[in-house]
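Box 3.1 A note on notation
Throughout this textbook, protein chains are presented in two layers. The first layer is the amino acid sequence; the second is a token string describing backbone geometry. Keep the layers aligned when reading.
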Amino acid sequence: MFKDLVTLTKPGIIRLNLFAAFGGFWVASQWDIDGLLLIWVLVGTAFTMASACVFNNYLDREMDTKMARTKERALPMGRLKPSFVLGYAIVLGLIGLTVLFAGVNVLCGFLGLLGIFVYVVVYTMWLKRHSTWSTSIGGVSGAMPPVIGYCAVANTVDAGAWLLFAILFLWQPPHFWSLAIRRVEEYRAAGFPVLPVVKGVLRTKIQMIPYIALLLAASILLYSYEYVGIVFLILNVVILACWLLHALSGFRAKDTVKWAKTDFLFSVNYLLVMFIAMILNTNGF
């Protein structure tokens, strides 16, 4: 049961969110770190995002039975009762929001609440079931962690917060669409109106391009506003240029599944390198 409770929170997503929150906190702190505040930020973000993920599992329990990668989860398999999982999600959310409101600041508390609302209500309950816009608009919730980390220190939504939001917001659609292209038939069978299912793989490949290009622009602006140094800029430009070229190569790829898998790896590795560079290269190294 304990393993199922942990799995419901989607620990892979939690780790990524914590890394993003840490990066945002570090950019705002510029190496002048308040250790206790950082702990509260990470704890509050972890519980808040965990709550959203458990709500997602609860609401998707019927649809999860139709997909190979989700049908063996705890709820579809009947290992946990829906009512218990719903209560679990509520408790996690109350803990996370209490920590953010009381241990960090009111702004971060509202950002955490916004993240839960967008992910649970706007994305999972509404758009995921009815519109191809689910991926793009749902990205608002995934972009909250670095903004929470940043605003914990800055206590205001300024250019730095908006640029961090933009980077995570723009990264998510091409990252997800590469996965959706690989599993397009599973999403079709489950009834999820993701872009490759509704508009086709070619349209999806086309739509990935402007997101990656705008991601490059946002990274350059983060350097231009002197939140990060030249090493960050160089690494980001090189990796994003390679990712953009690979995305463009998708139009002549003979094996779309293989291409999508590589593109997915590009997206994951970009985010990892970007946040490491951001942490090590703040304040004009």
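Residues 35-59 form the longest helix (25 residues). The mean pLDDT is 92.
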